[in-house]
Write a structure and sequence with these properties.
Blueprint (H helix, E strand, L loop, with lengths): L1 H23 L13 E3 L16 E3 L2 E3 L3 E3 L7 H17 L2 E3 L4 H5 L18 E6 L9 H10 L4 E6 L1 H6 L10 H11 L4 E5 L6 H9 L4 E3 L8 H5 L16 H8 L6 E4 L6 H10 L3 E4 L1 H7 L3 H20 L6 H4 L5 E3 L5
Parallel strand pairs: 4-5, 4-11, 5-6, 6-7, 7-8, 8-9, 9-10, 10-11
Antiparallel strand pairs: 1-12, 2-3
């Protein structure tokens, strides 16, 4: 009993530390996410009316006002409750998707479930539950996966894969043996689709191909170039600092995973503007996830979150206008994006 209490305390402290570090300390990768290696071909005569541009799309059979989702951030502590409810309120107002943070703590301490239950403020959004895939090697099964989905009335379950973070984290879970088979078993029985998500180191073509064979049709690549959880964890374990820039840059991860037919791609990792969103879509993503730019605003109120996302939407619209794409489907035809000009 004492060991269980200590573990719950450690998880809560870690979640508090993660929020503080991401807000107040240097936790970013020092390398580019690769999107700045690409430029759009400017169209001086777009032949469309900017006001007619449609940003809406569909993902997992749900309509979204724009192809942007609020990425998983936190949960399980009071500060995270405020974050999740402000993010969810903004997502509902705008008609976009959202993922909650890891719900492992909810399984181990059911009292924390209220920090993840956001359907009261976001009844209509596309919502993703979340667990660490490595927990399938630590006693979790279909039962726990279905429970976190049901508890927050989610449309899909994120199983995040984070070997680098776990390796650096003090007392991290590093038994990733035979996980693909266990993921396949869960995917075949869970009531909702599974999303496999990295947390900032990207997913390669080979890993995506293996996951597709296991029945996974949705991958959140979460490439390097944004928040580095190696840097975050190195605040308490300095051995991890040399891994700050480890991983596959977001742009390269999108390119690799998009080589697989019929794979749905969520692209995250250092997304800082609507232009980044447009580039990720043109490279092959279906929707794009945003985290760090929303964390600070989420601790204020939903209005602050909404204003950031509305700015992203307008930047995306302008980018589409200036290449002559009147819809997300047209933008994704990949005829507007090129490697940066040699002289730039």
């Amino acid at each position: 009993m004492q060991t269980e209490m200590l573990e719950k305390t450690n998880i809560k402290r870690r979640k508090q530390d993660h929020i503080r570090i991401c807000l107040q300390e240097d936790s970013a990768s020092t390398v580019s996410n690769g999107l700045d290696n690409y430029s759009f071909i400017h169209n001086a005569l777009p032949e469309i009316n900017k006001e007619d541009i449609r940003l809406s799309t569909r993902f997992l059979k749900k309509k979204m006002s724009m192809p942007v989702m609020i990425s998983s951030m936190s949960g399980g502590i009071e500060r995270a409750k405020k974050i999740n409810f402000n993010l969810a309120s903004a997502a509902q107002e705008l008609g976009i998707a959202m993922g909650v943070g890891s719900q492992r703590i909810m399984i181990e301490d059911p009292r924390t479930s209220k920090t993840f239950r956001i359907r009261d403020v976001a009844p209509d959004i596309l919502l993703f539950a979340n667990l660490g895939a490595v927990q399938l090697n630590n006693g979790f099964s279909l039962k726990e996966c279905q429970h976190v989905v049901d508890s927050c009335e989610a449309d899909a379950l994120i199983l995040h894969v984070n070997p680098l973070q776990e390796a650096i984290q003090l007392s991290g879970n590093t038994n990733f043996a035979d996980l693909t088979g266990k993921i396949e078993d869960i995917a075949g029985e869970l009531s909702v689709p599974i999303v496999i998500k990295e947390v900032g180191s990207g997913i390669s073509y080979e890993v995506a191909k293996r996951l597709q064979k296991a029945g996974i049709t949705i991958i959140d690549i979460a490439g390097s170039g944004g928040t580095s959880f190696a840097a975050v964890e190195s605040k308490s374990n300095h051995i991890g600092e040399v891994f700050r820039d480890w991983g596959i840059p977001t742009a390269e991860s999108i390119r690799q995973v998009s080589m697989l037919p019929n794979m749905n791609i969520i692209a995250g990792g250092g997304i800082k503007s609507g232009i980044d969103v447009a580039k990720a879509l043109a490279l092959g993503a279906d929707i794009v996830s945003v985290a760090r730019p929303l964390l600070g605003p989420s601790l204020v109120n939903a209005k602050e979150v909404r204003e950031v996302l509305e700015k992203f939407a307008e930047q995306l619209r302008i980018a589409m206008f200036c290449v002559g794409a009147s819809s997300i489907e047209e933008l994704k035809k990949n005829q507007y994006l090129v490697k940066k000009y040699p002289y730039s």
